[in-house]
Amino acid sequence: MASHSLVQVERIDITVIVDNEVDPISPSNNPAVQYAGLLQGVPLTKLNPGNARGGAQAELRMDSICCGAHGLSLLITATKDGQKHTILFDTGPEGSTWTRNAARLRADLASVEHIHLSHWHRDHSGGLLDAVRSITTATAAAAAAAACSSTRQSHARDSLTVGVHPDRPDYRGMLTPTGSIVSLEADPTINEIEAVGATVQQQANTHSFLDDFFLSSGAIPRRTEYEKGIRGGVRYVAAKDAWVKDEMIMDERLIMCNLKGKGIVVFTGCSHAGIINVCRHAVELGGGLSPLYAIVGGFHLADNNPEKLARSLQDLTDLQPQVLMPGHCTGWKFKFLCEQSMPAVLAPSFSGTTFTLSA
User: What pTM value is reported for the model?
Assistant: First the structure.
């Protein structure tokens, strides 16, 4: 398979705005992954001189620590030859969680050029509208500040873009073992996203973006016999007033970067296609010329199906990734199995942590 256009970047910084778990204390388990443990990554608040604290200069506040939530949102910056591009990959389950954590991280929201929605599920799209509002406000403020500065550095750019798959369901839900249907909240509509200031790009095919720093897949081929999607998944079709089977979640797309001298770094929202199908497809998109280096995001193995766990672990081990950063829907058991089978490869994704991968 021919490789798609993707430049080699020298550094990737990943700030986890939303994930299911929080751990600002544990140090890095993988020498290839840099991040500040032991609470050193939590932003500090300066204390005024002359405070009655024996000369302490800063305060570690508990309201500076991010909160966990069932969802995923990653702020990703890729760097090459001093040029940087920043995207937001998914937006978590709700606006309040996203805006609170982004504020606690003191994230540079004005740097965000593009939001990529991995798939239409509320735990990934729920914070989208508030994320767009926050980013556009931060960008406008940065531009105004630059206009007033002596350097007159311009922050003008095209409007924030949001990349989504065109097959947005009216609703998604779950068929329970008793036969009843539980509906999720609706994802934001295209009109709602545009109304808060973004330009929506609806794309189903493989494409690179932002000077070929990033590549988005199209539909991920389903080839393994044991990765069968999300059991009981359904979608509501308003035109038919009916719920239909939707276990494969075919709108989910991965994104990837090529880290110089290391290989492919894959970002996956939920891996409804199966984490092995996701990783193998990423290698295919690279033309088979670069090894699989790192996998970041949700592996969707929290259902703890014994056969799926065992076969996923074996096939993942065979792919020989050097960095595993599982989060969200991966489940504790698979992370435990990975650490046992591939010692020191694991670097779990935690809300509020910034991870750095370098060439």
Answer: 0.95
